[in-house]
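#struct-help
A.M.: can someone run this one for me? Single chain, 92 residues.
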Amino acid sequence: MDELCRMLSNRESARRSRRRKQAHLSELEMEVAQLRVENTALVKQLADISHKFNKAAVDNRALKSNVEALHAKVKCAHSLFHIIFQHVETML
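D.P.: on it. Structure tokens below:
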């Protein structure tokens, strides 16, 4: 009789263990699915930010080029003003 009780107890214990294992596996599968969704969102966010960064880098290079051109124009205007001013002084 004790052997029968022990056998039934062992079977029930094994059944509970399988249920716990299955529940744990289901939780892990749900976590994997959630992490995949999160990963997809992060990859998209990274792609968007990378695109914005690249656009900003292109814009920055264009602005730097414009600044250099404006500096050159100012330098040219300053030189021209200096030449005209000297010419006017010699006329007076």
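A.M.: thanks! Residues 2-91 form the longest helix (90 residues).
D.P.: also worth noting: The mean pLDDT is 95.
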